[in-house]
Design goal:
The protein folds into two domains: about 140 residues, no CATH class; about 50 residues, no CATH class. Helices cover about 35% and strands about 10% of the residues. The N terminus is likely disordered.
Length: about 210
Amino acid sequence: MFTRTIAAFIALPFVAQLAAAETCTRTYTAQEGDICDSISAAQNVSTYQLAVVNNGIIDDECNNIAPGTSYCLGWQGEDCSTTYVVQANDDCDIISNAAGINNTILYLNNPQINTDCTNIYIGEVLCTASTVQVPPAPAGSPPGSSIPPSATAANSDGDDLPYCDENGNPPAASGTSSATSSAPSSSATGNSDSDNDDGDDDDDDDCDDEST
């Protein structure tokens, strides 16, 4: 009797673990050449969700996808199947507006996105459901918080360029003044119009149009 009681007591944690285990609602068998984003796009599961439900199975770089292996795509009650594949020049406002949702919902369903929405990348699959449907992130940084080395940021369109001054010119490089003083004067040779033209061209390539 005592032995049976001890055995039942020891078994309780294991029963609780089984009861608490997540139920996978859909699966996918990997094919040759699959990567996480291609699976996500084809199966309507966000890149973030695929990583969370396979935490500890698929590595952070998604380098260990094995053809013939079945992977879970979503858990019961925590499975977003309304998705969007990020395109070049997308930002969170564009994606939210296109999906008819607000940024709050977009961020809750995609907790890997940073505050400035600068870490989304081309080909990443986002959940764009109108209610929160994804599983919570595991401890630590949410999966997908960093842009993969092989990926291209969606909105890396020159944000790091220096701003123009009030005349539309980029900031002078260090040492420009001394170099100018030793060079022949452009105005002396009557080339002021040419100089102005060059400045106009530089406006488009060397700096942003407005200062903050």
